[in-house]
Amino acid sequence: MHTQSKIIFLNGVGSVGKTSIAKMLQSLLDEAYLHVGVDQFIDMLPEKYINNSEGISFNPLKINQINNKPTIEITTGKIGKNALRGMRHAIAALADQGNNLIIDEVIIGNEMDEYKKLLSPFQVFYVGIFAPLEVIEERERSRKDRLIGLGRWQYNLVHQDKSYDLEIDTTTLSPLDCAKLIKNKFNLS
After folding, report:
1. CA–CA distances in Å: residue 96 to residues 7, 39, 77, 110, 123
2. Comparing C-alpha atoms, which of 29, 20, 36 is closest to residue 185?
3. What pLDDT, on a 0 to 100 scale, did the predictor assign at position 148?
4. What phi and psi values does residue 55 have, to the nearest 5 degrees?
5. Three-state DSSP class for 74?
6. What angle do CA 119, 124, 129 make, to 5 degrees?
7. CA distances from 133 to 79, 97, 148 (A)
8. What is residue 60's predicted lDDT score, i.e. its pLDDT?
9. Could you tell me which of 79, 60, 56 has the C-alpha nearest to residue 148?
């Protein structure tokens, strides 16, 4: 076991800027950090298990829509749950082999408890990435690879009952500024 592995754990709503921050951290830090995220693991699923009750589904909500705006809810079936549980264990295995990591996650529910248990042998810096809902929705609209309304569903769930070593609002900070804040806060090289 390589307990010297360092992990920067970025948690936030989709389109808040986690991936851009992770890429900036990789270029800014002298040490090698692997960037691993939930999107990469979802992309590993066969296409037939996307929007499938056994895999991962992105469901437009017909009721309980917030402010009558589009809202997309994510649900997972057995195959989706297995893939995401496997992701958490694979991430721990990467750290166990001496890899520094930047985790790019959207935690809904109690998955953070499992992460904290799995990553307890390592030095982990938990960073909450925030922005107002209006900013998230504008970013969703400007990107061509996002479902409009996903951030709205995630917004009140992602940071619920979570504590961080650092919280960053990406509204006015560039990804480089955010990466510098993280580097300086945790004395990373």
Report:
1. 11, 22, 29, 23, 11
2. 29
3. 80
4. -100, -115
5. strand
6. 115
7. 31, 38, 12
8. 80
9. 60
Three-class secondary structure of residue 180 per DSSP: helix
Distance CA 130, CA 162 (A): 13
Look at residue 145 in the predicted model and tell me its pLDDT. 76
pTM reported for the whole predicted model: 0.91
For residue 25, which amino acid is it? L
How many other CB atoms are there within 10 angstroms of residue 150's CB atom? Answer: 22
Pick the closest to residue 108 from 172, 161, 169 (CA basis). 161
Largest Cα–Cα distance in the chain? 50
Rounded to an integer, what distance in angstroms lies between the CA atom of residue 34 and that of residue 57?
A: 28
The residue extents of the domains of the chain are: 6-46+91-185
Cβ atoms within 10 Å of 118's Cβ, excluding its own? 16
Domain 6-46+91-185 superfamily per CATH: P-loop containing nucleotide triphosphate hydrolases (3.40.50.300)
Geometric angle at alpha carbon 26, from 24 and 29, rounded to 5°: 100
Order of strands across the sheet that contains 123-130: 33-37, 100-105, 6-11, 123-130, 166-169
Residue ranges in the chain modelled with pLDDT below 50: 63-64
Amino acid at site 75 = T
Asked if residue 60 lies in contact with residue 72, where contact means CB atoms within 8 angstroms, the answer is: yes
Do the beta carbons of residue 168 and residue 174 sit within 8 Å?
no
